[in-house]
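Minimal example, chain plus magnesium ion.
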Amino acid sequence: MPVVVRSPEPAFAQPISALSGVGPKVAEKLAARGLLTLQDLWLHLPLRYEDRTSLTPIARLQPGVAVQVEGVVEAVERGFRYRPMLRVAIGDASRGTLVLRFFHFRAAQVSQFAVGTRLRAYGTPRPGQHGLEIVHPSYKLLGVEGEAPLSETLEPVYPAIEGVGPAVMRKLITQALDRLPDQAALELLPEHLLGLPDGSRLPSLREALLTMHRPARDADVAALSACTHPAQRRLALEELLAHHLSLRRQRIALQQHRAYALSGRGGLVARLRAALPFELTGAQERVFTQLRADLARPQPMLRLVQGDVGSGKTVVAALAAMLAVEAGRQVALAAPTELLAEQHLANLRGWLEPLGVRVAWLAGKVTGKARAKVLEEVADGTAQVVVGTHALMQDAVAFHDLALAIVDEQHRFGVHQRLALRDKGARAGDGVSRVPHQLVMTATPIPRTLAMAAYADLDVSAIDELPPGRTPVQTIALSAERRPELIERIRVACAERRQVYWVCTLIEEAEEDPKAPPRGGPANRVEAQAAQTTFEQLTAALPGVRVALVHGRMKPAEKQAVMRAFKQGESDLLVATTVIEVGVDVPNASLMVIENAERLGLSQLHQLRGRVGRGAAASSCVLLYQGPLSQMARERLDTMRQTSDGFVIAEKDLELRGPGELLGTRQTGLAAFRVADLARDAGLLPQVHALADHLLEHAPALAERITARWIGGAARYASA
Ligand code: ADP
Ligand code: MG
């Protein structure tokens, strides 16, 4: 979205088309990448740098080290070995010879390389057939007597943009930088807040941008490559600040709405607690106290409760629901799958119906008359608690008086779905517009640093303690070669009436799994074992064991039926794909095998493993892997063996994968950072928060401008 245009336009808002060499075509290509104004070009930072400030004598080249060389063409050879090829040998005063090799070239190019021509080339030499060679170097012809000045600065290499060549891009950025305003006009951060805790100071924005685009020849290239240079930290700081401010602004916007203050005496809460067969853990108590305080306020709550699988989030949500019911209002609880929603329904009915609370059920499969009846109860308020799936968010669903919307496993929903549910409760009845309180729950713990940055628009609570009496799941990693031993072990377990999960990571060739492991590494080449085949093999290998199969290609009704049968003990061994990942509770299952475990990310492994260890029996999890393991895979498996603490695992996951993958872009837009990296720059966050507090209090207009500079106005977050 273009920044507000005033006249005369400030430099930052000038359109790129004002630069020379930008026709409508180029402008369009740039716009497609979000580059509209000069400011966008200033913030379009190099990916890496090439050092063309000096020449390296050819005799001193080392394989793998990028260099610039200058020499005279000594020989040209055009060949067709397997494909067309051009080899140009050059030599210099050091008496070294280097081959420049081209696979793609035009005829005109060939005639340029006359013997005796002087040229300058840049690239990374590698050992070839006849000594070192550079494949597809960038080069410049200097003519026979040619001379050209060396660059004064390191040469930036920008991210490729289709239809805009690197040379054009460099020219545009040079022009844009020439119009960079002086520091006073450019700087938005108060000078006195640029000090770092270690006493050093970050450079001004102007200085940082110039360093990034035109690093001096003595610049610390290592630091630049590692993205730890003060210039990068300065930009990362401002970018993190911009995102943080934007989230804070959403939060402020939410606070403008009203909500019902659910501040009853808690009679229902007390009755529910008294009826529970267990005591709440300290963590559950703490989180419920937080919820209760939030709900008592006439402003809408927006709180994320994270708690490891099995930490007991449901009962805490049920207690919160009682506060709304007691106030005579409604509660919605949405879960991402029907099975999970059904489980909630069973729990809530078990807990609440004895207290006289009416719990209704709404899922896709509720149709016809039954559906009409539920919709009516929801609309007239008879249904006090409504449990369901995405079906709850559909247009046809109208609540009488929704005061609390609970979304379980919120990472499985998009932001817009959560908002759709929230909007169900928006009313302007008595002249006051109200929205429901929102409680979102997740079993995917998010490291604290990340949560602070990613969720500045909501409050975060953690249930960081498991109910007593759980025996930790013993986890072992086993090479796939030892499968026969494992099968024997399963036979024994089933004979002891234990139930077993066998998880395959792919079914047939093409299961669309958005959470598929990162590609690359040797793991990539390993073909996943089809669940179908495994099912057949295990059925044959384990006579007397009742083997069942569930996978993503089955119809939802079939899936539910298989899962239900397993839960009821009608099968012993369940061969499954990752469809069982979320929330399913089968306390009698105490052994899990995860096949091709090396392919899965940490959080997914952790989620899967959370399916066992839910009952009193000691449980185990076998991570079956195909060697050889990549470094990453080895670290993941080691982490899984060493800990079952979801928060520790999440920290490790963040370290191994980075925040984009951890959170998904759907919810946060975090992956859209230009410079910042939450894992790397987490240390800046306290300063980001301090800056945000300061700006919001003393200079809200500056805060707006910082957000607009980095995020491009309100457009991206408008709906959140
Ligand atoms: P999750 O946080 O994974 O959603 P659940 O809410 O499904 O966990 O709880 C897991 C199991 O633990 C359920 O059977 C639940 O009844 C039980 N539970 C919850 N809180 C406690 C507690 N304080 N003591 C004992 N069992 C509990
Ligand atoms: Mg749950």
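The two ends are 17 Å apart (CA to CA). The chain has four domains: 10-49+156-226, 54-150, 267-463, 473-643.
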